[in-house]
Amino acid sequence: MRKSRRQIVNRIFEAIGAGLVVLDLVVFFGVYRPLGDKLDVEARRQDELRQSIRKLQVRVELLKKFQAALPEVAKQLADFTSNRIPPRREAYSSADHLVHKLADASGVKLSTLGFKLEPDHKEPLEKLALEIKAQGPYAGLVKFAHALETADEFLLVRDFEFTPGDNAPISLRLTADLYLTP
């Protein structure tokens, strides 16, 4: 009888042990693992939020710097438009004076100087197209083109072309845009 009692007790402990193992597996796969996955997803989401907050803080600091510099930039822009961009009513005379002054300083002779105001005004500044043909030594023509490019006025050289001459000085055809206040 002792042996059968021992067997019964052993079987009860085995059943309890097996039940605990099954309960452990149910708890692991039913509760712990899904909660662990949710915790991992939330941890990743929190990291992403921290990174986006850091990026936004950096952007806010950059915008604060821009905001602090804005009054100075506005003054510089006003200075640029008043000192470097001629008004439309003075455009032709100031462009003519600039081109002739630079041609004389470079030692080149102007053969033609043409102006064309762009009819469509889509930008804040108007554009006056210049077409210049000049003759002279190569060094003088290069000096003239460089002087136009680096002039104080808001002038943009679009195209230039050198043409050799037969027993004559070299020719330069240059197109540029002079920007004007409307």
Mean pLDDT: 83
What is the CATH topology of the largest domain?
Alpha-Beta Plaits
Proportion of helical residues: 55-70%
The total domain count is 2
Give the topology string: H per helix, E per strand.
HHEEHEE
The CATH homologous superfamily of the largest domain is termed: Ribosomal protein S6/Translation elongation factor EF1B
Shape: rod-shaped
Rg, nearest Å: 41 Å
Point out poorly predicted stretches: none
User: Cα distance, first to last residue?
Assistant: 117 Å
Which class of the largest domain in CATH terms?
Alpha Beta
Tell me what portion of residues adopts beta-strand conformation. Answer: 15-25%
| Spatial strand arrangement across the major sheet | 1-2-4-3
Major pleated sheet: 4 strands, antiparallel
CATH architecture assignment of the largest domain:
2-Layer Sandwich
Q: What's the helix count? A: 3
Overall structural class, as computed from helix and strand content, comes to alpha+beta
The number of distinct β-strands equals 4
Would you mind describing this structure in some detail?
The protein contains three helices and four strands; from the N terminus they run ααββαββ. By secondary structure, the protein is α+β, with helices and mostly antiparallel strands. Strand 1 (about 110-115) and strand 2 form a beta hairpin. Helix 2 packs antiparallel against helix 3 (about 140-150). It is rod-shaped and about 135 Å long.
Question: Any descriptors?
Answer:
Alpha-Beta Plaits, alpha+beta, 182 residues, 2 domains, four-stranded antiparallel β-sheet
